[in-house]
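Reagents: none. Just compute today. Adenylate kinase.
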Amino acid sequence: MRVILLGPPGAGKGTQAERITKDYEIPHISTGDIFRYNIKNNTELGKLAKQYTEKGLLVPDDVTNKIVEDRLTKDDCKDGFLLDGYPRNVIQAESLGKYLENKGLKIDHVLNIIVDRDELVKRLSGRRVCPSCGATYHIVTKPPKVEGICDHCGEKLIQRTDDNIESVLKRLEVYEDETKPLVEYYGKLNLIRNIDGNKPVNEVYKEIQILIGDEV
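Predicted 3D structure written out:
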């Protein structure tokens, strides 16, 4: 099964991706992880990507496409995969489609987790992080035992700058601008599976299972 996972920041993609990849025994492929791996191991593609990341620039589509395609050649992808964070635009989607077509393969489902904006803002702006050990909390859904203090190391928790309301709204705006054309693109291919991400985590996953069926 070959799946693309879409959803705004705060939609719970990471949680759902973990369940899908475990139950369906396919790798969770994140572009961020691929970039870090290639840069850390100083591969040719990593050197190319590093030229942009070091300057704080987005890695160009052609470089991103090559890095993802290289990842998809690995043995663990032969029975399928879940792509998270890729494609980010129609150009990347078209490149992925051509690559898979040349291999006699195709995307089976594009899971689009939809969450109300107010709920996303509440989820993201309530997140707190330990600057020492990296543990994450939420003031409503996952509060620490002692308010403002990390359960693990006792450090004072902080709110990341990109989790304040102004930054959250900007991140959501960028996501919507990027993703709308992508949803339309896959919608025309009858691959979009819209999922109500406002529901509790377990209910969201049940809906995903119903939509994708028992394919493996």
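The mean pLDDT is 91.
Action item: order primers for follow-up constructs.
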